[in-house]
Design goal:
The complex is a heterodimer of chains A (449) and B (348). With 449 residues, chain A is of the alpha/beta class. Chain A is 55% helix and 13% strand. Among the domains of chain A are: 235 residues, P-loop containing nucleotide triphosphate hydrolases (Rossmann fold, 3-Layer(aba) Sandwich), CATH 3.40.50; 78 residues. Classes of the chains: A alpha/beta (449), B alpha/beta (348).
């Protein structure tokens, strides 16, 4: 930080806003652009007459961040059983609780766990995100999607917080993934097809460090060939992995040499084995003991140096300055925001926002109208249908009534006919009776003669 | 029980020697299939087993090329000889298995290949000239399970289930030098449990006869209890304990492939080559092949029965695929005639 101020020159008043901006990672882009234009104007180097004291600024920054506590989020991507949990336990020298995952998950899902660690007055809020079920399915075409979605969600949450009116960024628990450790299976040949596909999808969203897991199954010569093959495959497919920064002189040398050792071949273990007169973390085999912290056995120490002791802060910065910014820009562009409108006049976020809101409300109203229309139409249709049905029923009723009357008439006719017949029969009967009454008198007369 | 010792010596006690002599003259053949994902050491193990280098100029694919890879079947045949006994060894390799991103039904080419060999043999067996039948049937399939997981994965289960009725499946734990003895024990127990649970029929060693001696029985028991075998292979010879052995050189020690306390390679070799090779062949021909044949014929009879209702009684039968055995043919014709009779009776 110290050399920055000398280059800028100028009075302390000019410098302070820049400093605070850096410290709080504020999202006021205009201020930044104004600052750079100020820098390009005039560089005046002033020499100080005595000791002013602003060389304590880094210490102030450090003490502030120590009181605030640090936050770090690691994403572990790798097949089930490849050693992710064991490596995390070994790296942080703690037994994080975890159950063995099963191979029979239907899909990939992410399991974040947050822990509060402390080491000599420095507090770290560590979040470890595990990918459960990765690489187990028969069809792995969609395996990368839950991972990408998770990373995007964390970015989205941060963006939402940034865009709030009343926001509290200093208090915000940053869940954005700072580093993705990609665990490569030690086949000794090359990357798996799934590895290539997944890393390609992740390289623009997160810092990736590829590591070779369970490296105690590869001999030295095979390991050398394997590393070269992996790096060449990554390069030829355009996968961008995290490069340890070499711009800061104090660490550039070690970082540059470490870059050449990628991917790190690691072995993890929490068990301790007695070697010589010390108990070291190791794995005991019938043919020998693999010591985790022995640099000629594996690259665990290198990984720990790079990841935790040297570059943790740089990882956080890269996540914020590069990956998050990319996400934010894409997201806002999607929503229709631009930095400059067609006339190259700088847009204000407010105006664009208002315009968008109006458009959205207009859309909403239109949709409501449409729905209402549809509803009215539907009602009319149903009414018409019902009327039609009513008419049909009525007709049927009339028809039935007519039939009924027809029947009745016929029955009446028949009844009349029957009555007539009965009457005729009765008459004939009466006639026959009267005839028979007069007949026997005649008979008697005949007989008497 | 005839007391042959009292009678004159007949001489059929020399039969085993005759069998031995004839078989040496004829020579043996064996087809071994290896299956599993790339990078599990299949080729290295085969080289170690048969002490030859079968894969001299192999071209391994890049990860990018493997994204949509399909499974191929490659065959290497070598003739090897030991103490006058000739063996024609065929190794069937399955490059590409499980390597693509989408591995749905990636075992289909493998099952098709096995069925093809059965069909070929069936055809040859039913043919007229059976002098020189070549037996290309797969006698054993070594399936490599990766040691990096916690047990069987879905693709392992599906593969073994698809092949259990077609070939003798012998599961192996590959690259066992990444597991400590305790981890190996746990993994073997887990695998045995899961194989039981999912009803996967792997190759079972035949029980030894009750009149074998105790040492042999103990050996047999040990063998059975250490399945699935955890193997390590190597293409290089290293110097260990004053001897030159096949092994892997690490900064922390030397893994000897043939050391029984390092891995089960010796057990596998004993089982596969020295004691059970013929049993594998027998089970293939008595069990798996017979199943295939019976199913094939059943399918054909069903087709023929359906067709016969529309055909005239004594029309020459032309089955679509393979000629059935003459006995079957006569039986089918008899059935046909019976059916025709029944139909006539019904009509009258």
């Amino acid at each position: 930080m110290a050399h920055w101020y000398c280059v800028l020159g100028g009075s302390l008043k000019e410098i302070e806003p820049h400093f605070h901006e850096l410290a709080r990672h504020s999202s006021d882009r205009k201020h930044q652009s104004a600052a750079t234009s100020a820098k390009n104007e005039e560089k005046r180097n002033l020499s100080l007459g005595g000791h002013v004291g602003f060389d304590s600024l880094p210490e102030q920054l450090v003490s502030k961040s120590v009181t605030q506590g640090f936050c770090f989020n690691i994403l572990c991507v790798g097949e089930t059983g490849i050693g992710k949990s064991t490596l995390m336990n070994t790296l942080f020298n703690t037994m994080f609780e975890n159950e063995e995952a099963s191979h029979y998950q239907n899909g990939v899902y992410l399991r974040p766990r947050t822990y509060d660690l402390q080491e000599s007055s420095v507090r770290l809020k560590l979040t470890i995100v595990d990918t459960v079920g990765f690489g187990d399915q028969i069809n792995k075409e969609d395996s990368y999607k839950p991972i990408v979605d998770y990373i995007d969600t964390q970015f989205e949450n941060y963006l939402q917080e940034e865009l709030k009116i009343k926001r509290s960024l200093f208090n915000y628990h940053d869940t954005r993934i700072h580093i993705c450790l990609y665990f490569i299976a030690p086949t000794g040949h090359s990357l798996k097809s799934l590895d290539l596909v997944t890393m390609k999808k992740l390289d623009s969203k997160v810092n990736i460090i590829p590591i070779i897991a369970k490296a105690d199954t590869i001999s030295k010569s095979e390991l050398h060939k394997f590393k070269i093959k992996i790096m060449s495959e990554l390069v030829s497919n355009g996968v961008q992995i995290y490069q340890f920064p070499t711009d800061d002189e104090t660490v550039s040398e070690i970082n540059a040499s470490m870059n050449a050792h990628l991917p790190f071949a690691v072995v993890g273990s929490l068990e301790e084995v007695k070697v010589g007169n010390k108990a070291v973390r190791a794995r005991q085999y019938p043919w020998g003991v693999v010591q985790v912290e022995n640099e000629s056995h594996c690259d665990f120490v290198k990984l720990r140096e790079m990841l935790i002791r040297v570059n943790m802060e740089d990882l956080r910065e890269q996540t914020h300055a590069r990956h998050y910014e990319l996400y934010r820009r894409c997201k806002l562009e999607e929503m229709g925001f631009k930095d400059t409108d067609p006339d190259s006049e700088p847009f204000s976020l407010q105006e664009t926002y208002e315009a968008k809101r109006k458009e959205f409300l207009g859309d909403l109203q239109r949709k409501e109208e449409e729905m209402r229309q549809m509803f009215v139409n539907k009602v009319k249709e149903t009414e018409a249908e019902l009327k039609e049905k009513e008419r049909e029923l009525h007709e049927k009723f009339e028809q039935l009534k007519r039939m009924h009357q027809e029947e009745k008439r016929k029955v009446e006719e028949k009844r009349r006919d029957l009555e007539e017949e009965m009457n005729a029969f009765n008459r004939k009967k009466v006639a026959a009776e009267t005839l028979s009454l007069s007949q026997p008198v005649k008979k008697d007369k005949d007989k008497k003669k | 029980i005839s007391q042959t010792s009292e009678k004159e010596y007949v001489g059929f006690a020399t039969l085993p020697n005759q069998v031995h002599r004839k078989s040496v003259k004829k020579g043996f053949d064996f087809t071994l299939m290896v299956a599993g994902e790339s990078g599990l050491g299949k080729s290295t193990l085969v080289n170690s087993l048969f002490l030859t280098d079968l894969h001299k100029d192999r071209k391994l694919l890049n990860a990018e090329e493997r994204i949509r890879q399909t499974v191929e079947i490659t065959k290497h045949t070598v003739d090897i000889e030991e103490k006058g006994v000739k063996l024609k060894l065929t190794i069937v390799d399955t490059p590409g298995f499980g390597d693509a991103v989408n591995n749905t039904e990636c075992w289909r080419p493998i099952t098709q290949y096995i069925d093809q060999q059965f069909e070929q043999y069936f055809r040859d067996e039913s043919g007229l000239n059976r002098k020189n039948i070549q037996d290309n049937r797969v006698h054993c399939c070594l399936y490599f399970i990766p040691p990096f997981g916690h047990g069987l994965r879905p693709v392992d289960i599906e593969f073994m289930k698809a092949l259990q009725d077609k070939v003798n499946v012998v599961p192996l734990i590959a690259k066992a030098d990444c597991l400590t003895p305790l981890e190996i024990k746990k993994l073997k127990e887990r695998l045995r449990e899961e194989i039981d649970k999912y009803g996967i029929k792997i190759y079972q060693f035949p029980d030894c006869d009750s009149d074998e001696d105790e040492e042999f029985k103990q050996q047999d028991k040990d063998l059975k209890e250490s399945t699935p075998f955890a193997v390590i292979g190597s293409n290089t010879v290293v110097e260990a304990r004053g001897q030159r052995v096949r092994g892997r050189l690490y900064p922390w020690g030397i893994v000897e492939v043939e050391n029984p306390s390092h891995c089960d390679f010796v057990k596998l070799r004993t089982m596969l080559i020295r004691t059970h090779m013929h049993d594998l062949k027998d089970i293939t021909s008595d069990c798996h092949y017979e199943n295939y044949r019976a199913q094939c014929i059943q399918n054909m009879t069903r087709c023929v029965e359906m067709m016969s209702v529309f055909h005239s009684p004594l029309a020459p039968l032309s089955p679509p695929c393979v000629y059935p055995a003459p006995l079957q043919l006569r039986r089918m014709q008899q059935m046909l005639q019976k059916m025709q009779q029944q139909m006539h009776e019904q009509e009258l």
